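Justification of computing resources. Each target in the renewal requires a structure prediction run like the one illustrated here; the chain below, 370 residues long, is used simply to show the kind of job we budget for.
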Amino acid sequence: MQQVDYLKDFRDSKRIQALAKLIRKEADRPLNIMEVCGGHTHTIMKYGLKQLLPEEIDFIHGPGCPVCIMPKERIDHAIALVQDENNIIATLGDMIRVPGSKSSLQKERAKGKNVKMVYAPFDILKIAKENPDKNVIYFAIGFETTTPMTAALIEKVIQENIKNIYFHINHVLVPPPVKAIMDSGEAKIDAFIGPSHVSVIAGAKIYKEFVDLYNTPVVVAGFEPVDIMESILWIIRQFKENRREVEIQYKRAVTWEGNTKAQEMINKYMEPRENFRWRGIGDIPYSALKLKDEYADLDAEKVFVDILPNEPIDDHKLCICGDILKGVAKPYECKVFGTACTPQNPLGSCMVSSEGACAAYYKYGKLELV
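Resulting structure tokens:
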């Protein structure tokens, strides 16, 4: 088997330029393409792909950033929990920087509160064993991509009968918010670039309803610039050939059915919530997961219910992150973008996350592919 050089094959400027030429030649109508995943947004900005495309092709940024969509009241849960010196809060990556209503986990850590950033859920086991007299609460986040790892950790905790680990589940799903956006009619979306890592787990099958309900093509794309450019070309050809289908460009990792073992693991321990409030978007039924009732003794929302705030809290009045996540605004349309709101001092979650659209525009907005 020939080894694939990803840097050479999927970031090759000649291939990118060749695909851009084909796109310019074949594009015969305006198309608004939503890249659902924030990782795709960063690739588009980093490599200046928009500058290579004809004016008819525009990108609409979607809600596929798990940090960006986390409402303030959920973050306030974590902040409330960490006020107890018997509790340790652990979470992934950028989550500690996202502002709640009055603070963030990063600010609480600076005050001496016990906040841990982990690189993988199984790091929680080590923290728990090193702190047997503390409650270790895993503030679990992510779309379908990271949910199986949380489910595997739950299974390990049960198997080893570990009594000081609890789960605050904030895992969310891709299809419901996209359907909510389409049903609202606020954004004009002609086609979708489907998330790659989500699709590895859930399978390309989850996008079939987008085609059926909205007559919109979906092409599941890898994260590299060649992947995205090829996917745009495929979308253009679907319209030219009067087709509306789910296609898998990222065949090196994605199948139609996805990882069925991972799906079974998720379904063993979790089930859809009746409702979940998305930051800047609002309540979306069955758009997130929770622990099943039989695992209530592991559920931080039930074990610590008496200290958790319940009031919904809106974003800063000047922040338009919600409109950006809904595809009706671009980051540069925000009055505080790059001034009062920067990665060092974010007002909204879209500027915090490494997958956030505002962070992408701030970091790469002036760059073009050479």
